[in-house]
Amino acid sequence: MTTASLANTDSTASQRPEYGRTLALYGLTLLTVVTLNFVLPRAMPGDPLSALVDPDSRTYVFADEVRDRLTAYYGLDRPLPEQYVGYLGSLIRGDLGWSISQKAPVADLIAAHLPWTLLLMLPSILLATAISLLVGGHAGWVRGTLADRALLVGCVALGTAPVFLVGIALLLVFSVRLGVLPMAGSSTAFAVYSSPFEQVVDVLSHLALPVASLTLVMIGRDFLLVRTSMIAVLGEDFMLVARAKGLSDRALKYGHALRNALLPVVTRFSMQMAGAVTGAVLIETLFAYPGMGRLMLNAVGARDYPLLEGCFLVAGVVVIAANVVADLSYAWLDPRTRSKP
Fold first, then answer.
1. Strand partners, 105
2. What sections of the chain are H helices per DSSP?
3. Which residues is 315 bridged to in the sheet?
4. Backbone angles phi, psi at 105, to 5 degrees
5. Quick one: CA dihedral 223, 224, 227, 233, positive or negative?
6. d(Cα 71, Cα 64) in Å, to the nearest integer?
7. If you average pLDDT over every residue of the chain, what do you get?
8. How confident is residue 109, by pLDDT bands cut at 50, 70 and 90?
9. Most Cβ neighbours (<10 Å): which of 65, 150, 265, 291?
10. Residue 215 belongs to what H/E stretch?
């Protein structure tokens, strides 16, 4: 065996404990998420069956034995430790439970609403990230100029504006005033499409205003992060060395400065992925959009434990996966973050 082979073997062996610790950390995080999914809904006042024992409720059940059977069916008559063990057992079997308020499997409800939320949130996050990188990177590069100050004022105004206010403004202009875009929904009700292309155009036209509202607000928030990171990178020693090599401004700006300013942006992107699952409740409510945000809002109002647990679990898993991707991206963007043998 050569010296190089021995070195590679030692390096691989030294990295295994690091990978093991990382996997153990994410496993512990997942267990914490699952536990919080169980605890938090039950910490709210009331319970899913409270309406059954309220004589003023339309869903009041008169027969005591029927109420008792329903309580036993959902396991709400058992101690919390027993409920928790049953919840873990259901998750291991891949069973997310049955929605108490909507009388349907939780997995089916999530499968019906999650694609619409992803269709809304992913384009918004990607567009906002790309635009804020270009605009924020340019503002940091020309800091102190009139262009920098104009971008700073405009983006700060967008970032501090409530998202529903931006949505209402776009709705008034493009739907009420101009009438060029639909006001609500994800598609035209009872529409008969002559071709798949016509259906795609209809869905995209309904998607335009919600995506624009979220993108504008996200750009305002991400802009400051990119600009600040860009300014910090410009003062680093490696930038002075790159300038001394006679590199062009384009190579300095995009090949060195902006790439090294990406680390905080990657962190921000992974945090935004939570919204990619839970959706924007205010925007989905404003535009009557059938996403996960509205589903969770209805579940909170009904104290629907199984539905809340399923929504929170999916959100938690996506956030953990996004953090794993972010960790891998750090090693590619900045070699200093890689594990050393």
1. 98
2. 3-43, 64-73, 80-92, 106-141, 146-160, 163-170, 196-234, 237-244, 249-250, 258-260, 262-278, 281-286, 292-302, 305-333
3. none
4. -60, 140
5. negative
6. 11
7. 79
8. very high
9. 291
10. helix 196-234
Q: Please tell me the least confidently modeled range out of 49-58, 212-221, 288-297.
A: 49-58
DSSP 60-98: ----HHHHHHHHHHTTTTS-HHHHHHHHHHHHHTT---B
Separation between Cα atoms, residue 49 and residue 303, nearest integer Å: 8
Distance CA 72, CA 85 (A): 16
pLDDT in tens, 231-271: 887 777 777 777 777 777 677 777 667 777 777 777 777 77
Q: Please, what's the b/e burial string for 66-94 (b: 16 or more CB within 10 A of its CB; e: otherwise)?
A: eeeebbeebeeeeeeeebbeebeeebeee
| Tokens at 324, concatenated | 């794993």
What are the counts of helices (DSSP H) followed by strands (DSSP E) for the chain? 14, 0
pLDDT at 288 over 70: yes
Q: Exposure of 142 by Cβ count < 10 A (0-12 exposed, 13-18 middle, 19+ buried)? A: middle
pLDDT at 13 over 70: no
> Please, which pLDDT band fits residue 335 given cuts at 50, 70 and 90?
low
Domain boundaries, the chain: 112-303
The whole-number pLDDT of residue 208 equals 92
Token pair in block for residue 35: 């536990």
DSSP helix/strand/coil, 24: helix
> Which token pair is 318?
């996506």
Residues contacting residue 326 through CB under 8 Å, at least 6 positions apart: 266, 267, 269, 270
* pTM (predicted TM-score): 0.76
Say what the pLDDT of residue 4 is.
45
pLDDT band at 155 (very low <50, low <70, confident <90, very high): confident
In the prediction, which pLDDT does 334 show?
59
| Alpha-carbon span 83 to 305, nearest angstrom | 11
The two tokens of residue 300 are 């909170």
Among the CATH numbers 1.10.3730.10, 3.40.50.300, 1.10.3720.10, 3.40.1030.10, which is that of 112-303?
Answer: 1.10.3720.10
Evaluate whether 170 touches 164 at the Cβ level (below 8 Å): no
Tokens of 132: 């804020």
